[in-house]
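Standup, Tuesday
Yesterday: got the pipeline producing structure tokens again.
Today: sanity-check two examples.
Blockers: none.

Example 1:
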Amino acid sequence: MNRILFVLTLFIGFAVQSQELNCNVIVNAQFTGNENLQIFKTLQTQLREFVNTTKWTDKEYAAQERIECGIFINITEYNSDIFKATIQVQSSRPVYGSTYSSPVYNVNDKDFTFRYLEFQNLLFNKNQFESNLVSVLAFHVYMVLGLDADTFAPNGGDEYLKQAQTIVNYSQQENAKGWKLEDGLQTRFALIDNLLSPTFKEYRSVMYDYHRKGLDIMNEDPKKGKTAIAEAIGEFESMNRRRPNSFLLRTFFDAKGDEIEQIFSDGPSVEITELIATLNRVAPMYSSKWRSIKF
């Protein structure tokens, strides 16, 4: 009996301490010409463990509540302990009453240079710079956490997005690109600065309205859900007038373009004339998708 209780205690303890993410991390070194080197395999293993076992929040997640995400690191150059790469980060969240997972975050970060020695410790400190490798990964983790939370409650991801901004602030001490205003318009600095700026306030409102008022009710009332999604997308009009073709809008439609096309090309028909006009104004780069919507 005592042995059974001990096993149950271990199981419960594991469930309580379950981390926030279920993240598949892939390191691809094909472009270096030395993709079979052990260091790349070790890096991939260490990064998977780092992302999936670090306790990023003070909240408890059951195993089934962990956020599904993927990190693809493409190493383009490698010289001793210096790596040059790009990093693609994607996440999704389940849709209520279905087996479907909706893409939420999809960002290709091209400014990713870091130092790494095989088997070095990867440690994260919320208030202190440790390494560019850790900072970039932690930044995107908090972006994933913040935007996921925004889809479940209005501005629900505040604390995580502010932590992402803190990482940007303390990482500016390094010379690595992507952390400063002068580094460009499609950087980590620009992403979090825009997301927390009143200029782009509709973005986070759309994240909630699109998912909770739209996708999550489609199982019970598809027509009502589709109408709510169309109305949510319409909220981007004001934001786009203030800042046309913004980086934030591109990240939204990079994640949602295929999904929007599928939603409005199937199921009960709703009025889409205004929706198509809005999509062509706020996301002209996906005009071929909007033309394929048949309803």
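Example 2:
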Amino acid sequence: MIPAGSREPPREPRRTAVQYPGGLWARYVWVGSGRGDALGDTDALEDTDERGGSHEGSVSVSDHGPLVSPDPDRLCRAELRIQGPLGAWSARFASPIFDEPQGLLWDTAGLLVVKYGFRAYALVGRTGELRWTYEARTPLVSVLGSSRLAHVLVQSEVETAAVREDGEVAWRVAHPDVIAEAELVGGRLVLTGYGGVLPPLDPQTGRSLGRA
């Protein structure tokens, strides 16, 4: 992620492709502020995809940008394009900072949870329907999950939030340092701040597990 003001975002769209379990193929495309029109210049959904197949017909785009701003095209933009067993769908997002979108397939809930900027979006994996959205006070670092958890972990720079399948927050924990990385390791949530590794958390409850 590139914090606002650190350097000029690239003019050309960035792209990445991900294969999720269940036959979901995803393509993410993202651009800097005021460059939303460039998303339409990238390979169309009806063109050949990463698997060598082709999409037939047009695919409508669900634009979630207005959740962030009444004029989302002035901000940074991202588009997610999915090809799955039930067909194709696409969604767009907006962010006040230049950021790389990332997704987690929460298979037990059937949700694809995408983080972009300050928000996480829970989309039904097979149809793209927006189930819920979570907004943090600071940029999101990652979204994490496990089949052993009844929630996903939405990690921002200063706070961890556990969000259930219905979008309700199970718990939140604030941190004394800015979080740079977060990962689930051996049943623990391991957090690395700019000042070093923080005491790990129990991902079930958010309680501290003692020394790092």
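Quick observation on example 2: The first strand starts at residue 14 and ends at 20. Residues 1-6, 43-56 have pLDDT under 50 and may be disordered.
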